[in-house]
Amino acid sequence: MTDRPAGPELTVLSRIPSGSNAVYHCVDEWGDSWVYKPSAGERPLMDFPDGSLAAREIAAYAVSEASGWGLVPETVAAQGPGGPGMAQRWIEEVDREHAPGPDPIDVHPADSVPHGRAVVLRGEGSRGEDVVVAHVTDGRLRRIAVFDHVVNNADRKGGHVLVDAAGVVWAIDHGLSFHTDPKLRTVLWGWAGQPLSGDDVEGLELVRRGLAAGGELRRALSDLLSDAEIAALGERVDALLASRRFPVPGPGYPLPWPLF
């Protein structure tokens, strides 16, 4: 990630247990909460360049904003105690017992899937019972599914979709995105093969416009992604606009692991 203007001044409150990479809950000078991920805390990966995940998170926010969908919390370059990286606005998840609606993605008994949910995967529970993974089919989660195809998200786990106290659904954790090779792994396959909606198409057209020569999105991405990654992004947008349909799972393993 090249040098960018300084983001919020961060004070670490706690480290967030999140698996492989360093993630911190921080506050800025105004008392607002952020998630901070220093590039130095990224675990090396076989298929993504070292130290590039923070830039990919910032790029995902830029694409989300360009589409007009506003799916990703504000994400900016930041200098924190662990060095340069990215900071993302903290989303305070609602207590599910007092949530305004159902979990967007959940596991259900196979014989009692709630109405209006799309089944993605069938399997067995811990006691050998038949269960399914299913998700709601409302507009905002649908747009997250389109967005994941656009950014080639290799890690859309169920836990990477958050619901705030107002019932707004947010998409987080996009460090494993924008690869030039097909990498999409998601639990949001419920629309596979279905036609895109008018809102889906409108957002895609806005992204394509932003990626044009001299476009604002292209300028924003130019110091976050490689030229090849930006070109591949444009090709995915063009393919979606040409087909006007959600893609279907391709060869290989189309699901993240773990699922949640």
Describe the structure.
α3 (198-211) packs antiparallel against α5 (227-243). The chain is globular and about 50 Å long. The longest helix is centred in the C-terminal third of the chain and has 17 residues, at 227-243. The protein is of the alpha+beta class and 260 residues long. Mean pLDDT is 91; it is low at 1-5. It has helices spanning 53-67, 139-151, 198-211, 216-221, 227-243, and strands at 11-15, 24-27, 33-38, 75-80, 83-89, 105-109, 117-124, 130-136, 161-163, 169-171. The protein has one domain (11-93, 138-243). Helices cover 25% and strands 21% of the residues. It has a five-stranded antiparallel beta sheet with strand order 1-2-3-5-4, with helices on one face. A three-stranded antiparallel beta sheet has the order 6-8-7, with no helix packed on it. Strands 9-10 form a two-stranded antiparallel ribbon.
Please give the order of strands in the largest beta sheet. 1-2-3-5-4
Mean pLDDT level: 91
**What is the β-strand count?**
10
The helix count comes to 5
Percent helix, as a range, is 25-40%
Beta content? 15-25%
